Amino acid sequence: MQKNYPPDFKYQDFAPQFTAESFDAKEWTDIIASSGAKYIVLTTKHHEGFTLWGSENSWNWKAVDVGPKRDLVGEVAGALRAHSDLHLGLYHFLFEWINPLFTQDAANLFTTTKMLPELYEIINKYKPELL
Keywords in UniProt for this one (predicted)? Predict the structure, then answer.
């Protein structure tokens, strides 16, 4: 890492470099459907808390604000439903290892004010068949 990045480069500095410029949800749908798959499970949030949709329960650490500036979950869900019979599954990492609310959560506020509202949000918004 030190060889390729400045000394003060942090994990969060990667996010603006994630542009998804070559990502095409319909192309993914076509490839996955032609493979014979019956469903897709998309990672909607990784362990560091970066969401691939514009979560109302997330600070500015999401794909609609940083990097691609797109709702990638919405694009995948829309392409699957419009162009295939594939079933949509969403993987949502429940915790956020670097979120201070999680790391200092003696009162369980992370679960009640962040994790569960975010989970309800993606279920209600994208209506996955698998979770």
Answer: Glycosidase, Hydrolase, Signal
The string of DSSP codes covering 13-46 is GGGGG---TT--HHHHHHHHHHTT-SEEEEEEE-
User: Cα angle vertex 9, ends 50, 114, to 5°?
Assistant: 20
Give me the amino acid identity at 113. Answer: T
Q: Report residue 41's pLDDT band, with 50, 70 and 90 as the boundaries.
A: very high
Type of residue at 89: G
Tokens read off for 101: 């609310």
79-127: pLDDT as tens digits: 999 999 999 999 988 877 777 777 777 677 778 888 889 999 999 999 9
Distance CA 129, CA 38 (A): 12
